Every structure is written in C-alpha cells, then in structure tokens.
Amino acid sequence: MDKILELKELVKIYGVNTKNPYKALHEIDLSIDKHSFNAIIGQSGSGKSTMLNIIGTLDKATKGQVLFNGEDLSKYNKDQLADFRNKKIGFIFQFHYLLPEFTALENVLMPFNISKKPITKDIEERANMLLETVGLEKYKNTISTNLSGGQQQRVAIARSLINQPDLVLADEPTGNLDSDSTENVYQLLRKINKELKTTFIIITHDRKIAEKTDRIIELKDGKIYADIKK
Amino acid sequence: MEKKYQHFISMLDKENKDDAILFIHDLLEKDMSIIDVYENFIIPSLADYECNSSKEEICIWKEHTRTSIIRTILESTYPYLIKARKQDSINKLIVLACPQEEYHEIGAIVSANYFYLMGYKVKYIGANTPNFEIKSALKILQPDYLALSITNYYNLIQTKKLLEEIVAENDNVKIILGGQAIKKHRDDIDITYHYILNSLDDIKRFRGEDK
Fold it and tell me: Which residues have a Cβ under 8 Å from the Cβ of B94 and sit 6 or more positions away?
C-alpha cells in the first residue's frame, strides 16, 4: 500500500531553551496508508494534538521528518507550507468555527474567499455537491447559527473538503455532539473516505468512532503505545 | 456430516430457531458426542457466517439473531456436557470473562465449556465485565488462571492496560487469551499473556501439559 504520510523519528520539545523543557513526542515513527481511515487515541497530554498539529504543518517538530507523498515538509518555506496546507489538507475541529453571520454555503466557500481566489461556477457546484453529500442541500442558504450542532459540524466537514484534500485531520470531530449526531458524523466521514478516497486521521476519545476505524494508534506519554490494524 | 451441517445452516439462514434446536438435540440423542456437535456444527456456524446483505446495519442484527439461536443451543445442551465431563478432574480453577465493552461472548462460553469438559473448575463471570469486577473475582476466587476472550480489536487496547495492572498486582495467576482479535492481532500489540488458546486442540494440549 502506498504511503501518504511518514513520520520519521519525530520529536517535539516545548521550551527547548528553558530550564524545564517538556518532551511531548519521543522519536515517533509512523506511516499512514493512502485512502485509509485511522484513529489516534490517548489520554490528555499524550501528544495526540501535538502530533496532529505537526502533521497539519500548524506546528514544527523539534527533530525528525514529516514526509507527505514522499516529500519532506521541513524543506518548505512559510508560503509553500501555507499553499500545501490549503491544497492538501482539510481540518475538522471539535468546535466547528463557522462564521455566524454567513450561510452554510458561504461558510463552505470560505477557504476560497480567504485566499481571494475567484469563486468559479465549478467551485460553487462543488460546494453544493459537498452540502448534498453531508445531507444539507436544503439548508445551504440558512445562516449557520440557525443550524443544529450536528448540522454545523456537517457544514464544517463540507468546508474541510472544498479544496479536495488528500488528507483530512480531525481533532475530536464528535466531541460536542450527542450519540445520534456522532453516529451520523461517523457515517459521513466513512462515506467520504470510501467515495472520494480521502485519507482520514481522527483524534477521538469516543470508542464508538475509534472501534469502527481501520487502524487504532494509541499514544501514551508521547510514544506509540499500541498500533492495531483491523 | 457435511450434508447434516448444510441442513443445519439452512435452518439458521432461515432463522428457524425451533427446528435448529431440535435438530441438534436429535443428533445428541442419536449418540453424536457433544464435542462433535460443538466442533462440526456450533463453532463453524458462527465462524463461517457471511452476511449476504451489503448493508452493515442488516448484517449486525442478522448476526445477533444467529448468535441468539446458538446461545439457546449451548444452554439447552449443557446436560450433555455434564455427562461427558472427564472423571479425572484437575484441582485448578479458571476464571473466564469477556473484558469491559466486549459483548461477543459465545467464544468465551464455548471455551468455558471445553475447560469444564477437560476437568477444570470453571467460573464464567460474563460478557462486558468491568475491570474492577475482574480484579475483584481474582482477589476473592484466587484462581490459577484468568482467561479472557476478545473479539473487538479496540478491546485489545483496554485489555492490555488491564493485564499490565493484574500481573503487577497478582503473582500467581496465569493469563490465558483467546478470541478473534487475539487470533488476528497478537503480533500487532505487546500484550501480557502466558498462553494463547484458540481451539479445542489448543485446550487439549494445554490440559496435557498442565499437571
């Protein structure tokens, strides 16, 4: 199986130049298959979010390499990283971060508005298609604050896919949802994984999500404690 | 045997509970051994089960229906186990359980019955047994072995932690692991155990070496 992502001896130390540096990640070696659906679990402080932020280029490793489709991201400058992040990676967070004064459709198109690229007919069609995929085509013109928590999270999922990313990083995507909405969001992520072949890495505390993924990676004290493929 | 097995499977496929139970009892009344019934009918009927529907939710309840029929067969045929139990019993106790959140218990029940047939004292303490209750059983019963059956691979992670704690707290108990998750993933996780037993042959061999 081809790898989309490889972490090689990844180390993250916070406060390197202080009296009490804290090593959050200890020489992590990990590779992720293309089109796979993965869960990262672990207690608070285990290094899950640190690792996800480094993979998403929102943070930098102290040592080690992150290879994306074989390319070493440490060689990218700031602009190249921003471009990479925008084109290749989709983010879903526990809180949806939708802009309250905009509609569902406008929120999905927000990555284009921010990059000041023209919104072509093709892009608008794609946004509509994504809203249909997440089951919200009827609500596309609804202001986001008039949607339920589960619906808002589905808009955030559609927004994360607008640039057709190869990899989606989801940090507790169901953390704020009830169990029915959690199941709906899981079904949706799985559908996107199957139909669009998007690779997923999902940080979750929710066993109902983790046990349905194809691979569970558990972090403990900044190290891989268990790594099981279904 | 194959023809009889296919007949049994067709009854299970049709979810014809009464006929399936009566069929197995008829085999036992006609002198088939309880071990042959387990090995040639009960275990394969679950292990070989394939859902014909592409819809996950249909497959889940259909599998549960089949499991329910098999569970009734296991319970209703227990007197045959009592008759078949080895006379030369071994004075060792095995506590069996499925760990927390593990609801697939047929494998554990079959294992418990096999250990019983081999002459062990057996206490099956249930599916989805919380960690503190497993620890409590170990403390009170002081068994020679703790046997855990794990089917859902997520539960390997929970069980790994539990076993690390148990081994640290108990010097004497030996750990036996079995189940689909162990069969498939034993090399993927550094889990504590003394024995892995996944079949009647494994249990017979274990009994032979356990003096």
Answer: B112, B115, B120, B121, B122, B123, B143, B144, B145, B146, B147, B176
How many domains would you assign to chain A? 1
Name the residue type at position B154: Y
ipTM for the whole predicted complex goes beyond 0.90: no
E-assigned strand segments in chain A: 3-14, 22-33, 37-41, 63-68, 71-72, 89-92, 167-171, 199-203, 215-220, 223-229
CATH number at residue A156: 3.40.50.300
Burial status of residue B161 (CB atoms within 10 A of its CB: 0-12, 13-18, 19 or more): middle
Measured in whole angstroms, how far is the alpha carbon of residue A36 from the centre of its chain?
13
Within an 8 Å CB–CB cutoff, is residue B60 touching chain A? no
| pTM of the model as a whole | 0.82
Instruction: Convert the pLDDT of each residue in B61-73 to its tens digit.
Output: 888 999 999 999 9
Residues 6+ apart with CB under 8 A from B119: B85, B86, B88, B89, B90, B207
**A227:B189 CB<8 A:** yes
Altogether, the residues listed in chain A come to a count of: 230
**Tokens found for residue B58:** 């249909």
B59: closest CA of chain A, how far (Å): 15
